[in-house]
Specification:
Structural class: alpha+beta
Distance between the termini: 46 Å
Shape: extended
Helix content: 10-25%
Radius of gyration: 35 Å
Number of strands: 33
Number of domains: 3
Length: 673
C-alpha cells in the first residue's frame, strides 16, 4: 500500500479492458490468504481503471508492478513501481519498497530511512487507527470488512480510511479496500485540498482492479518508453538500416491509440524535439484533393517555463510512443508525422479520421500561424464552429498571422478589425501590435482614439507599462496629449504626463512645473508632475542607493524602520555641499498601493538653510560616498492599515546639490509589516 499523498495526484493513462481471454486473477492469488500481506509475488502487474472526478473521467488507468527490491534492515523487500501516474512532487517516490514484519507490512520510500506501517495486523476491535506518517503526515483507520464488486470480480476487503493531518495542497483523502491475498481492489479519492482544508469531491475519483497479470506476457505501458536496443523491437516493426524510421503498428492499438516506434539505425544520436516530454507526433489523413492534412489538434503549453528538452535516441536504439486515434470517424488512409525540424513521416495504414479533428487542426496553434489569408478571414469574420476556448485562441493566432502575411493582404483586414467596436480588449491589443507595421495607420488610429475621452480604447492605449501601444515619440500624439493635459478634468492625466515627459521637451518641462503648483489639479497628479520633473529633467551626478539602516533586507523592511541613503560621486570633480537636515538636499518619493504618499504639512524638499542647527559639511571626491539616515514617518503621514498581504511601498530619492540635480534613483519595493 502506498500513502495517500503518493497515490492520488495522478494524471492517469489508459489501457484496454480486454484481457485477451485470460482470467482476471491468476491462480497464484487466493483471496483471504494473508500469509504475505499485500501480495509480494515478483513479476506481476495490477491494472486499475479510473472513473469519476469533476471531469467524469472514463477509461483512464494506472498500474502497480512488483519487482525484487533491495535488502532493508536485513530483510528482503519488494519494489512496488507505479506506472503511468504522477507520484509526488515531494521527492522521488515512484518506487516504494515493501517489507513484512510479523503480520503487518511496512513501506520505505526511495531515498528515505523511515518505515511506515501501511497494512494492519489482525485487529480485535474496529474501528482502529494504525498508522501515522512523518514526512507526509496521515492517519489511517481500519473501519470494517465490506463486500466489493470490481471488474476483476467480487471480493471481501478491509475498508481503510486515510486522512491527512496537514496539507501541501496536492493530496486527496482516500478510502481503500484491501483483500488479503489479492491486494488493493478499490480506491476512492473522496476529498480534495482547497486552500488549508479538504473539501468533498462532487464525484469521487475511483480506481477499480481490472486484472492481475504476469509482466512476462503483459503489454508495455511505458509511453514514451525509455530508449531500448533495436534487438528488442517487435517483429512487425520495419526499419531499414542506416535510416531514422517512424513506424506505426496499426495492428497494435493500446489505450485506444496506435503504437508508433521511432527507430534510429543511423550512426549518430538523434534528438526528437519535445515539449514537457511529449514529441510533436500528429495524425495525418489523405485528403480528397490528393494531399496529406493534419487530423489532430495541437496546443502549445501556456506555461512560460515549459520544458523543451528533446528526447535522445542513441544509434541502434528505439523509443515507443502512442499515436492519436479518434474514437469515431470515417476510415481513410492515415499516417503519423513529426511536426518538428525532422518532419519525419511514418508508413501509411488505414484508420478512423474525424472531420471535426481536421477542422480543429486547421485553426489551432500549429495551423493558423501558417495559414493562408482565407483561413485567417474565416476565423476572424466567419462562422467557424469551434469550442469557445479554442475559438478565442484561434482568433488571437489569426491576428498574429496578419503580421507575416503580405501587406497588401493583411492591411485591409487590420483596418476592418480596427473599425469593429465589438472587438474584445485583448483582441484589440493584439491588433495594435500588428498595426505597427504601418506607422501612418498606427498614428492616425491612435489620434482618433485619444480625442474621445469616453472611448474605452483610450484606456488601453494609455495603460502602462511603457505605453507599448502608442507610437514612439510621435510629435502629433505628444502635441495632442499636452493640449489635453492643460485641463485638470482630463482623464488619465498621470499616464499622459508619463508619455509626454519621456521626450524631455522644454514645453513638457514648463507644463509639469505649472501643474506642480496648480491647486486645480488633483493632488496625486501634482506629486506625479513633480516626480517627472525630477526624473526626466535632471543629471546623474551622484549614484543614490537605499538600504535599511540595520543592514537587513530592504524587501522585508517595516514602515517605521530607518533607511540609509548613500550618495556616491560619479563626476570627475570634487563636490562640496552642506545641509542642516536631509530634506534640504533630498526629495523622497513613495507610493503605497499605487498612490503617492503626500509630504506632511511643513515638509519642503530642497529648502533653504534655516540656521537652527549646525550644518553638516560634505566634501566628496570622485567615487567617494556620503550617507544620510532618514525615516519615512518624519516626512509623510502613513495611512493606517491593514494593507493586505501583498501590499508594498515603493520608495525613491532625488538629490539636489550645488551645480546639479540628480534624478530619483534607488527605486525599491519595501514589504509592509
Amino acid at each position: 500500500m502506498i500513502s495517500p499523498a503518493v497515490i492520488v495526484l495522478a494524471a492517469f493513462a489508459g489501457s484496454p479492458d480486454d484481457s485477451g481471454g485470460s482470467p482476471a486473477i491468476p491462480p497464484e492469488f487466493k483471496p483471504g490468504d494473508d500469509r504475505q500481506g499485500f501480495p509480494l509475488r515478483h513479476g506481476f502487474r495490477w491494472t486499475y481503471r479510473i472513473t469519476g472526478g469533476v471531469s467524469g473521467r472514463e477509461a483512464e488507468w494506472f498500474y502497480l508492478e512488483t519487482h525484487p527490491g533491495p535488502e532493508i534492515d536485513g530483510e528482503r523487500t519488494t519494489r512496488l513501481a507505479v506506472k503511468e501516474m504522477e507520484i509526488s512532487r515531494w521527492g522521488d517516490m515512484s518506487d516504494l519498497y515493501l517489507t513484512k514484519r510479523g503480520a503487518a507490512l511496512f513501506q520505505h520510500a526511495k531515498g528515505n530511512d523511515f518505515p511506515r506501517e501501511v497494512f494492519p495486523k489482525r485487529r480485535q476491535r474496529l474501528p482502529d487507527a494504525f498508522v501515522q506518517g512523518d514526512r507526509l503526515p496521515f492517519a489511517a483507520t481500519a473501519l470494517d470488512q465490506e463486500d466489493v464488486r470490481v471488474p476483476a470480480g467480487d471480493f471481501t476487503g478491509w475498508k481503510i480510511k486515510y486522512g491527512h493531518d496537514w496539507l501541501f495542497g496536492t493530496e486527496h483523502d482516500l478510502c481503500v479496500y484491501y483483500t488479503p491475498g489479492i491486494g488493493l481492489v478499490k480506491l476512492d479519492a473522496w476529498r480534495e485540498p482547497t486552500g488549508r482544508e479538504n473539501t468533498p469531491l462532487p464525484r469521487p475519483i475511483t480506481a477499480e482492479l481490472v486484472r492481475i497479470e504476469p509482466l512476462s506476457t503483459a503489454h508495455r505501458v511505458d509511453f514514451p518508453s525509455a530508449p531500448e536496443p533495436v534487438a528488442r523491437l517487435p517483429g512487425s516493426a520495419v526499419a531499414p538500416d542506416g535510416q531514422l524510421t517512424l513506424f506505426a503498428d496499426y495492428e497494435d492499438v493500446w489505450e485506444d491509440q496506435v503504437v508508433v516506434y521511432a527507430i534510429n539505425k543511423t550512426s549518430e544520436a538523434v534528438d526528437l524535439p519535445a515539449e514537457e516530454g511529449k514529441i510533436y507526433l500528429k495524425l495525418e489523413a489523405w485528403s480528397s484533393d490528393g494531399r496529406w492534412e493534419r487530423a489532430q489538434k495541437h496546443s502549445y503549453s501556456f506555461c512560460g517555463n515549459a520544458s523543451d528538452i528533446p528526447l535522445t535516441i542513441e544509434p541502434g536504439h528505439f523509443m515507443a510512443f502512442l499515436g492519436y486515434r479518434p474514437e469515431k470517424g470515417e476510415t481513410r488512409e492515415v499516417r503519423y508525422r513529426l511536426y518538428d525540424s525532422l518532419g519525419l513521416a511514418s508508413n501509411a495504414g488505414r484508420g478512423p479520421v474525424d472531420p471535426v479533428d481536421i477542422l480543429r487542426a486547421r485553426y489551432d496553434d500549429m495551423g493558423i500561424p501558417q495559414a493562408c489569408l482565407r483561413y485567417v478571414e474565416d476565423v476572424l469574420f466567419g462562422e467557424v464552429e469551434l469550442p469557445a476556448d479554442e475559438l478565442v485562441d484561434a482568433r488571437r493566432n489569426a491576428v498574429e498571422r496578419l503580421a507575416y502575411l503580405p501587406s497588401v493582404q493583411s492591411r485591409p483586414v487590420v483596418e476592418r478589425l480596427l473599425s469593429m467596436p465589438e472587438l474584445s480588449g485583448i483582441e484589440y491589443e493584439d491588433v495594435l501590435e500588428v498595426v505597427e507595421r504601418w506607422p501612418e495607420l498606427h498614428e492616425a488610429h491612435v489620434l482618433e482614439v485619444l480625442r474621445g475621452f469616453k472611448n474605452p480604447r483610450r484606456t488601453v492605449l494609455l495603460a502602462p507599462p511603457w505605453f507599448q501601444h502608442l507610437p514612439e515619440q510621435s510629435p502629433r500624439v505628444t502635441k495632442l496629449l499636452l493640449s489635453q493635459a492643460r485641463s485638470p478634468e482630463t482623464p488619465h492625466l498621470q499616464e499622459i504626463l508619463d508619455y509626454a515627459a519621456s521626450g524631455q521637451e522644454p514645453a513638457v518641462w514648463a507644463l509639469l512645473k505649472s501643474i506642480q503648483g496648480d491647486p486645480r489639479y488633483p493632488q496625486q497628479v501634482r506629486v506625479h508632475a513633480e516626480y517627472q520633473v525630477a526624473a526626466r529633467f535632471s543629471q546623474r551626478i551622484v549614484e543614490i542607493r537605499i538600504q535599511r539602516a540595520d543592514a537587513g533586507a530592504l524587501s522585508e523592511a517595516a514602515l517605521h524602520d530607518a533607511f540609509d541613503i548613500t550618495l556616491e560621486n560619479l563626476s570627475a570633480r570634487t563636490l562640496r555641499f552642506s545641509y542642516e537636515e536631509p530634506a534640504q538636499i533630498l526629495a523622497l518619493y513613495a507610493r503605497l498601493g499605487g498612490q503617492y504618499l503626500v509630504p506632511r504639512s511643513g515638509v519642503t524638499w530642497f529648502g533653504p538653510p534655516a540656521g537652527k542647527t549646525p550644518a553638516t559639511k560634505v566634501v566628496l571626491e570622485p567615487l567617494e560616498r556620503h550617507t544620510l539616515r532618514v525615516r519615512l514617518m518624519d516626512y509623510f503621514d502613513i495611512p493606517a492599515g491593514p494593507y493586505g498581504e501583498d501590499a508594498a511601498l515603493w520608495i525613491a530619492a532625488a538629490c539636489q546639490i550645488p551645480n546639479g540635480h540628480a534624478s530619483p534613483q534607488g527605486g525599491e519595493w519595501v514589504k509592509i509589516k
